[in-house]
Every structure is written in C-alpha cells, then in structure tokens.
Amino acid sequence: MGQTGDKELISLIRTSDYTAFEELHQRFWPVLRKLAYRKIGDRQEAYDLVQEMFIELWEKRERLNFGDELNGWLHKRLWFKLSTYFRTKGFREKHLEDFRIYAANEVSAVQFDPMELRDIDAYYEDLLAAINKTVEEMPDRMREVFLLNRNERYSVNEIADKLNLSPKTVRNQLDRAIGRLRKSTETYNPTALELLFIIWLIS
C-alpha cells in the first residue's frame, strides 16, 4: 500500500477501506504531529489534536472533499484544528513568546496586547476557507507550483528543475497565485496583528 497514489488512496478510504486509512495515517501522521507540537508546545495535546483530526476524517470520509493532493489538504485541515484550539484554549505564555519572537523578526517595534490575541475568533476559519477555495480553483500548473513552494518549501529553482520549467515561468506562476489569493481575501480586513498571527499559525 506504501506506493498507493493520493487519488487511489482517497477512493479506497471513501469505500471504507480501513487498510487504506491506516496507510494515510502512517504516511502523514509524523509531519502533522510535529507541526502541531511546534505550534502548541505540548506533546500530549499535539498528539490528541492530530489523533482527533484523523478520527474525524474517518467518520466523515464519505462526504469530505479531499481534493487531489493529500499533503496540502491535510495541512489545511490541521490549520483549522489549530485555529480552533487557540480560540477555545487561548495562548499560554510559551505561545505568546513564540509569536512575540516571530512578530519581532517580521516587523520592527511590534507592540501588542496578549488579551488581543486571546480574542481572535472564527474570523480565521472563514479566511482560511477562502484561501483553500482559491487554491483549489487555480489552474493545475499554478496550483502545483504554489503547493510545491508553500507546502513542500521548494525554492523557485528547485521547482523549475522538478517541473522542467524556467525560473521565470515559476516566478510568474507564483506571482499570479498570490494575486488570486489577495483578490479572494480583499474583503477581509484583519489588523496587522491578526494578519501576522495567521501567517505564524500556518507557517
């Protein structure tokens, strides 16, 4: 089962093939748990959150729109779980410090009130849903380039080599993808702090 492609794996899971679901779990669990731990800072809570996410996937397997690319889809699913986690449980001092360090590296002389962070609400789910929808609607090549850059952390040159494209073409595709994302989210008006938090959450 280890060589099963994403589309076939999704098809098998939809038919309640539990072996396929176990393969999905084994293939993606380590990186998702690592990401959750990096954001939450508690091993047990990170474990529980990712485990809960996989349980939900199995329970809702027949009606979920997985898309064609599991790695990116699962990462977005985890973003939603993390967003909910922080809204319901708030930030601990470690989270605040992690975000403070990130913000300080992104913007000079950042000032923020910890209570403002605790008040971040369902706004994020709506925004991330808009982002997810925009990515899914991108032309195939644009989406492939964008996901390689965003989810796999490939550089422009690495993407060019992998897809046999020129670096200029890759940059153009990324610019257009970002343009689409900006347009799809232009009705959202986050504060500078909220925007930084979104970026920190999904990085």
TrEMBL record:
Name of the protein: Sigma-70 family RNA polymerase sigma factor
Coiled-coil positions: none
InterPro entries cross-referenced by the UniProt entry: RNA_pol_sigma-70-like, RNA_pol_sigma-70_dom, RNA_pol_sigma70_r2, RNA_pol_sigma70_r4_t2, RNA_pol_sigma_r2, RNA_pol_sigma_r3/r4-like, WH-like_DNA-bd_sf
BP GO annotations: DNA-templated transcription initiation
Domain RNA polymerase sigma factor 70 region 4 type: 130-180
Signal peptide feature range: none
Similarity comment: family membership: Belongs to the sigma-70 factor family. ECF subfamily.
UniProt entry tagged with the keyword DNA repair: no
Keywords recorded for this protein, A-Z: Sigma factor, Transcription, Transcription regulation
Location of the RNA polymerase sigma-70 region domain: 26-90
Molecular function (Gene Ontology), one example: DNA binding
Gene3D superfamilies, sorted: 1.10.1740.10, Winged helix-like DNA-binding domain superfamily/Winged helix DNA-binding domain
